[in-house]
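call fold(seq) -> tokens
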Amino acid sequence: MWRLGVDGKAVNLTGTGKKEKISYRTRFRLDPEEKGVDLAKPQYFTTYGEWNKKGGIARIDRGTKQASALLWSDHSYNGLMKAKHADVYLYRRESNEEFPDYLSGDANLASAAKVTAANPQQKEFAWSSGVRLIDYTSDEGDKLQGALYLPANYEPGKNIRRSSSFTKSYPRA
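ret:
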């Protein structure tokens, strides 16, 4: 993120995003009545790791030379909101294994507590055992990446045998 002055001078507010391959994406609008961006107040952004696929929330404070990562994990973070008359924040966290739920915490989002359990029946099902990122190079020399989603109950080195539940046939239309 950059601040562009009326004199035409640009100042990088996030610091090391390009170097660390982190994208600062959406600015959270914490005051629904704001008329513009007040850089005297902390600014919160979603972050995304271009090569590790991690998500997070970062904050830019006045007078700092780079953004502070408040949350950074294998989740997606969205919907950050602030209480009107208190330093209480609410946000949504989700992953391919975790249904979107809301958490609440302070301005640093550090002591966040889960406040919803929107999909309790999810624990009754076998979910992916995780994701592996695979880096490779195209024929043209471009650096590329793919994601391999592991099956439920995956164990490294163990062969998966096909069971009747995987070979059920369905009538043709």
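The mean pLDDT is 89.
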